[in-house]
Model the fold of this input.
Amino acid sequence: MSVAACIASMPAKASLVADGVTYSLTETTTANPSTDQFTLGISGINGSSDTEKGRYGVEALAFTTPTNFSFATFVSTTSTNPTGYSSMVGGLNSMGCDGSGGFFCFKANATPVAPALPAGSSLSYVFTVTTSAAGSFSGYVPDLKINWVGTNNNYDLVSQPITPTAVPLPAAAWLLLSGIAGMGAMARRRRLTTAA
Done:
């Protein structure tokens, strides 16, 4: 695998903190150039920094669409309350997925119920997004909308962009790059020695 291919396959990451809860979105390329996989990680739920607390779970979440969007498919979640979500076209308001605007939405198959999630807990949502052949994920910075249910009558409807953040290369990539640089230095030294 070339260095460029190794770096190109690394996931892109973006994050947002709203009401003391952290949302991290990781994008990973797939073998299909028009489909990417995304993982939304949510942490700090009902923790000390969570300004709203009492959250049972996520009733719905939505993202803006990339260029030439075709469809989004819900893959999995670590949530057991509820266990599944249905994909829908359109945005999200305080009543749930509303079917309008340049968004795609995932609606819980059942409304989350008590008890509240443990303090400081985390959730993860995995989904894929597919564009037409002319589509692109280049420069895609989605807005996230998420609607929580819990002990509060109404939670703030988060509706903000998830801003890209630098992701450090994994240790294995640094080792690979260092090894390639070392081999290049040895080859150069060998050429200089034979030339002399």
Observations:
- The helical segments are 3-8, 171-195.
- The first strand starts at residue 12 and ends at 18.
- The first helix runs from residue 3 to 8.
